[in-house]
Amino acid sequence: MTDVHHLSQATHDRLSAELEHLTSHGRTDIARKIQAARELGDLSENGDYHAAKDEQGKMEAR
Which CATH topology does 28-62 take? Predict the structure, then answer.
């Protein structure tokens, strides 16, 4: 059984804009952070790399 959720046009527009931002700018920004952290060397103890990967996971789950 599926649940039906009704949205106002304003909510739909806001969510659509958020999705557009996340898929265009969000992914690009996080990819840059991951690349910069990789350039620092050893990933096993690289806090910047792990933080960027966590941020990427949260954004993708969004």
Answer: Helix Hairpins (1.10.287)
Report the alpha-carbon distance of residue 35 to residue 37 in Å, rounded: 5
Tokens of 40: 């620092």
What pTM did the predictor assign?
0.62
| Contact status, residue 48 vs residue 36, Cβ threshold 8 Å | yes
CA 30, chain centre distance (Å): 7
Phi/psi region, residue 41 (left: phi>0; alpha: psi -120 to 50; beta: rest), is left
Question: How large a percentage of the chain has pLDDT more than 90?
Answer: 31
Domain boundaries, given as residue ranges, for the chain:
28-62
